[in-house]
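Notes continue from the previous slide.

Worked example: a multi-chain complex. Inputs as given:
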Amino acid sequence: NAGVMQNPRHLVRRRGQEARLRCSPMKGHSHVYWYRQLPEEGLKFMVYLQKENIIDESGMPKERFSAEFPKEGPSILRIQQVVRGDSAAYFCASSPRGADSYNEQFFGPGTRLTVL
Amino acid sequence: AQSVTQLGSHVSVSEGALVLLRCNYSSSVPPYLFWYVQYPNQGLQLLLKYTTGATLVKGINGFEAEFKKSETSFHLTKPSAHMSDAAEYFCAVSASGTASKLTFGTGTRLQVTL
């Protein structure tokens, strides 16, 4: 069973460009979470999605950031008009369906975004 | 709402010595508690988790943690440190009963010296 996959692993963008980060959850997992890790800090929750639905986006910046998890294909975290402060590691996690999953989230290797 | 406090951003131990990483939590509902390890430039790997039942939880690589409700703590221990244990360790909490977000502490960087 393949783990959570994220691509690209490293992404370099210039200020003002768009960044698209992709996450493929583990097989059978229908819950996806995105977290951001700034340098020397812990992970901060951004958004929680199920297929075709955003469940909790309380951690998403109000502007420039969006996320989706379509019926088919990976989850996408999109950052428009990137700024230097967006430079961080972005981690995706997935968990199985149902409350008996104990909320165990399996993390991908992350995408390290550098904004020049 | 949940929060996590990890005391000590850096901990240094000698190889073979006891490892103790502290974690205190705050939660308005019964919590689920987790410890994750992160090696440089890698993702997070689950070490252990507490959900219900036995309060002493054993994880991978010889680590264990004890849930103490009265102290709102979930400290991570390992009897004998190994050089390969050098990494960043994160304590996290989520609300029980639902698939919900993890709230992480700021992490503790463990250094193991000869």
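Summary box: The first strand of chain B starts at residue 2 and ends at 5. The radius of gyration of chain B is 13 Å.
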